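During the second half of the funding period, the structural biology subgroup turned its attention to how the target accommodates small molecules. The most pressing case was nicotinamide-adenine-dinucleotide, which had performed well in the primary screen but for which no bound structure existed. We therefore specified the complex as follows and requested a full 3D prediction, including the ligand pose.
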Amino acid sequence: MSAVDLRGKVAFVTGAAQGLGYAIVRAYAQAGMHIAMMDVRAEALTRVADELRALGADVLPIPVDLSDAAATQAAVERAIEFYGTPRVLVHNAALLVERSMFEIDLSAWRKEINIILQAAFILSKAVWQGMTDARDGSIVYLSSGSGIKGFVKEVAYCPGKHGQEGLMKVLAMEGAPYNIAVNSITPGAPINTPMSASNYNDELKQRWIDPAELTPAFLHLAGVTAQDVTGERLDAWALSQQMGGNP
Ligand SMILES: NC(=O)c1ccc[n+]([C@@H]2O[C@H](COP(=O)([O-])OP(=O)(O)OC[C@H]3O[C@@H](n4cnc5c(N)ncnc54)[C@H](O)[C@@H]3O)[C@@H](O)[C@H]2O)c1
């Protein structure tokens, strides 16, 4: 899946308690990575940690509300203190509450934007010095069709995802001299996750796939540097197929 041996390498993954984030940490654990896992759903995160430890994995669950800047900073500092600078940072957590301009208020808008974009900045900033010093690392943001197009009732999610795309492009340029890969990735296929369960129509639910099908892409991105791929908006389904799919 990855040209690089990931055993003993460190990953920080947000939104690890369910859905795509859970599939990613499970794949990373099976590859022998050490993983700091962040999520606001503390009990579910503990269950994931217990499950992965039972498989022999070395994981650190960190319950955190990523809409809170100070808590996000403290969480990532704890992860760095425990494991050091990660090989890969995957910012996968997001919140999508469909609300029109009439329905949303500033505090609800900020919450979604902060989980998506503010946390992307804080997490990336926290690992930046270590990754640039090491001249080795990969940062991945979960994107969406909402990162390039508008959708009705996505007054916060959509600008959050657009903002993340912009941050990715700038950090890819600034990270290139240090060989840091910074990319965004969209699922590229309908996925069966709790977010999808509340947002997909019946037609999409009929053809959604297990998010584990997308993990070859994330295993690949855990090993890349800027020389391999950077500044790109990738498609996890297509990349996973290119990597040979999930056996
Ligand atoms: N599901 C899709 O069809 C789809 C499509 C395009 C992009 N995406 C993106 O893929 C990623 C994963 O999506 P998913 O479908 O697995 O979503 P999900 O809602 O099932 O999982 C998201 C995770 O983020 C966590 N989270 C939410 N708010 C948080 C907060 N304040 N602090 C910390 N953690 C928080 C949740 O607890 C959950 O574990 C997201 O970035 C999403 O935007 C999903």
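Two results from this model are relevant to the next phase. Residues 16 and 75 are 14 Å apart (CA to CA). The beta strands are 10-14, 34-39, 58-63, 88-91, 137-142, 180-186, 233-235.
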